[in-house]
Design brief:
Blueprint lengths: L7 E2 L5 E6 L4 E8 L9 H15 L4 E5 L8 H7 L3 E4 L2 E4 L13
Parallel strand pairs: 3-4
Antiparallel strand pairs: 1-2, 2-3, 4-6, 5-6
Length: 106
């Protein structure tokens, strides 16, 4: 179901794109859940599945861009999941182990 570097649409009318960005680093390029389906655990589940994939690739440090035009819920969502501000438009996790499916915060 998940494939790095490819956007995937799901039944929730959302999408996801991610890639390995270095030997032990990765980047979530896009994670979106339609407003009608938010606050149902879908984003958290997607984040957990991506964390599983990054873990399998031995990538620990993961970054995600949060632009000015991102939904207002984006920053609190990533902060609740343990990401820290890195630069103006970037958040990161130094270790994504706690985000793996079944262990991500709800």
């Amino acid at each position: 179901i998940l494939s790095p570097g490819n956007q995937r649409r799901c039944a929730c009318d959302g999408g996801l794109s991610f890639r390995r960005a270095g030997r032990r680093e990765g980047e979530i390029q896009y994670l979106f859940v339609s407003p009608d389906y938010r606050r149902r655990g879908i984003g958290t589940a997607l984040l957990g599945l991506v964390a599983d994939w990054f873990n399998e690739q031995s990538a620990q440090r993961i970054c995600v861009a949060v632009a000015d035009d991102s939904p207002p819920e984006a920053r609190p969502f990533y902060e609740h999941a343990g990401a820290s501000p890195l630069r103006k438009f970037w958040y990161s996790w130094e270790d994504i182990g706690h985000l793996q499916a079944g262990r991500a915060p709800s």
